[in-house]
Amino acid sequence: MRPILLGVCSALFFAVTFVLNRRMELAGGSWAWSASLRYFFTLPFLLALVAGRGRLRPLLAAMRERPGAWLLWGTVGFGLFYAPICFAAAYAPGWLTAGTWQITIISGSLLAPFFGQWVSGPSGSVYIRGKIPLRGLLLSLIILAGVALLQVEHARQLTPSQLLLGIIPVLIASFAYPLGNRKTMELCGDRLDVFQRILGMTLASLPFWLAVALYGLADAGQPSSSQAGQSVIVALSSGIVATVLFFRATDMVRGSMSGLAAVEATQSLEVLFALLGEMLILASPLPSLLSWTGIAVIIAGMALHSLFSRHPGEAASGTEKRRGGAEVPAAGGKIT
């Protein structure tokens, strides 16, 4: 239950991103600065946290071992996640972006077959590929049905270009974030903690963010003081608090694909939090009865996910007995 609660809290802080990105966009700020400034402002906080705990050197040593892999998955997990999110804010309201982002609930589950583990057994080493948690996938569809109900009437007010440019980038981000998250878990194994892993991904994605910032400078000039200030809030709320909570929750259930699916499903609450944030900050209208029905469906789907997030017989370590008694990863396996 604790990973689910951490996931819900991370959804609350992540929702700040959708609301403030939309607010900055409406004020004329460049999406490129909104994206890159978050990571520029996040970096010193993470450096202070990791260095203050005496864990910077092990991280740098781990990154030197496989610099190309860190560069790739840091850019995928952070760069191809957040830049499309900010780009979409230029064409669609925050609630639509947050709602579309919920496809990550399914994206994370569909990525399971791309991960696995070599396990020694009586007949030699066997590669156990992850399996898609079908039960979790079905429960995720309930949540997505609620998200659809929440947004159906609002979507009618948008033009086709707004829908495409506000949805397709978020679909890309929905696959990039869980992929980068899980691949860096694979890189780290048990050697690095959550703070080290987030700092490593931030450092690895810096070349990407420098390129995005240069584009923002050429396209819109320097960011305003208001955009910079709001980017600091996003950096602290989403870049530090929400990311640490979410990565900690996924680390706690890393041996179970069904558990990972349940934690990733908590991010559906971002829609509710973003909707409330836009009502309070951007004076958005109250939801209709249909939207409240969608909210109820989302909450019901979340409750079912938390109740059935583990398969019967799945061990606490995320392993199960198979192939003559050898321990192998359950429901997709621990990535090490």
TrEMBL record:
User: Can you tell me where the transmembrane regions are?
Assistant: 31-50, 70-92, 98-120, 132-152, 158-177, 198-218, 230-247, 259-283, 289-308
Q: Extract the InterPro entries matched here.
A: EmrE
Q: From the Swiss-Prot or TrEMBL record, give the protein name.
A: Multidrug resistance efflux transporter family protein
Swiss-Prot/TrEMBL keywords:
Membrane, Transmembrane, Transmembrane helix
Q: Where is this region: Disordered?
A: 314-336
Per the UniProt entry, the signal peptide is none
